[in-house]
Amino acid sequence: DTTTLWLLGDQLHPDLDALEDADDVLMIEATGFADRRPYHPHKLTLVFSAMRHVRDDLRERGHDVTYLRADSFGDGIETFLAERPDATPHIELMRPASHGAGDRLRELVEERGGSLTLRENELFWTTPADWREWAGEPAGAGGTSDGDGGSTDRTYRQEGWYRHVRRETGVLMDGDDPVGGEWNYDELNQETPPAGWTPPERPRFEPDALTRETHEWVVERFDTWGDDSLDGFAWPVTREEALAALDTFVERRLPAFGRYEDAMVEGEPFLAHSLLSPAINLGLLDPHEPVRAVEAAYEERGVDPGAYDPEPSEATTLDAFGDAVGTEEGDAAEDAPTANGSESTERPPVPLNAVEGFIRQVIGWREFTRHVYREAMPEMAEANQLDQSRSLPPAYWDGDTDMTCLSEAVGHVREYGYAHHIERLMVLSNFALIYGTDPAELNEWFHLGFVDAYHWVTTPNVVAMGSFGTDVLSSKPYASSGNYVNRMSDYCASCPYTVSRTTGEGACPFNALYWDFLKENEETLRGTGRMGLMYSHVDNKDDEEWAEIRERADRVRELAAEGDV
Ligand code: FAD
């Protein structure tokens, strides 16, 4: 008897135990999934190109890979089994991250006379058992063999989970205490860069022949949304490129990552973000790898929280003890593909707030959202505790708006299939939230528009965090007026709307929508979480002010719905 490992398109790591245990490998390129929604062409190019590269890479490493193109997984499995009528192989599959997919795929194989077992997904750091150890048993009735609890009744908070994982894994720990004495240095991670600061250049991996060929096919074969040229496409599509992307991040971008993590700058879509989510979500990187690399960088080049100011003029670099660091070559493996932006040989120090902030995103937020998704699906996908039902304004599709912040953020998504976290949360989902968008529709938009989007990660981020469709993972909505955008960006300076005004023509659309949203949802929100201060401002407004706010909010909604905001 033989065992075939069925490798899905987001399970592309070459060093899996599952690969070691298998006799051969099956990969199915199913076009049906890509027909479901008008995905960004870069997303489809990325997934299919990475699959094709990994197929070739695995074959070079000596694996026997059957690579099938089919309309659906069902058709692919049928072909696979038909080619082996005498010795039906047993199929193994790492538990897919998408809700219920493991059971569905098992049934699909069994219906065609094959057998399939699910095994742990090695591409997350923590397991469902680790989660249960922290969270206890799921709240929902029943649950599937995917370990899904199926309920949004319980609530979970990331910070507690994050500390638990740090303690359990020893990551960034000094015995029983967090390195540096604090668990979280977020208060140092809310600065905006000074004028003239140039972010480290984005690493670019030039599309090779296989990526170009894949892209041509994608553009011709599928209905897509977003820039269909390859000009802005620079994502890693191979394991080697993913490792080079990680290296470039750790060497060049990590020092400023924390400090400017929440900032937005006109014309700068990437700032010092890692840009690693596409590679991590495809499995080209295992989440241990970026975390260990960042920890190692701290050991080599670490400085106190906030002790390094990543100014352009700052040429001298200091090590953990304040000594000047030499200018030897970095650690980059010599034969690794080089990304541009990594030519300089100076190795800037990495402050603890950057290191801790990054590690929290990965072992805190990323693992947390995955488990909350498992627990809260299928309800979470439809959760809508505020009963919001508006359609997404046309500006999300065509990018045509006078609002600089929205125009920038939508523009980044159209051009790159990427916007960084604060644009996603505090511009794109914040505006949709206070405008009154149906969370499921917003989730759809995020899912099709972003290169790193998968149902398991958009749903908790968009429906729960961004739309407050449920309080399963946060106690208050991420809603704000134009003040937040003004504080964290340079967008308002060039915007024709006036951020300091709430009412009347020309007032920043965020402002009236924000107050109107609080008023409209008072019953649900007044008592929740940390909303007391906001509602004290609500209480201080008189009837006349409310009438003007309502008038402006209605007007903004009307303009936005007509594509005229
Ligand atoms: P960095 O800022 O460099 O962060 C480092 C890493 O931390 C990321 O690569 C990612 O792996 C992880 N991470 C950080 N925050 C989260 C989070 N909240 N959930 C899961 N992982 C996190 N992330 C996706 O991977 N796919 C999505 O489709 C997605 N949609 C989002 C939608 C909304 C409305 C919001 C608020 C967040 C979403 N996120 C999503 C989370 C986060 O914004 C992205 O992971 C991040 O912006 C990716 O860019 P980066 O790699 O440069 O991240």
UniProtKB/TrEMBL annotation:
One Pfam family, short name: DPRP
Biased composition (Gly residues): 139-150
Coiled coil: none
Region (Disordered): 134-156, 329-351
Superkingdom in the source lineage: Archaea
Gene3D superfamilies linked: 1.25.40.80, Deoxyribodipyrimidine photolyase-related, DNA Cyclobutane Dipyrimidine Photolyase, subunit A, domain 3, HUPs
PANTHER family: SLR1343 PROTEIN (PTHR38657:SF1)
Descriptive protein name: Deoxyribodipyrimidine photolyase-related protein
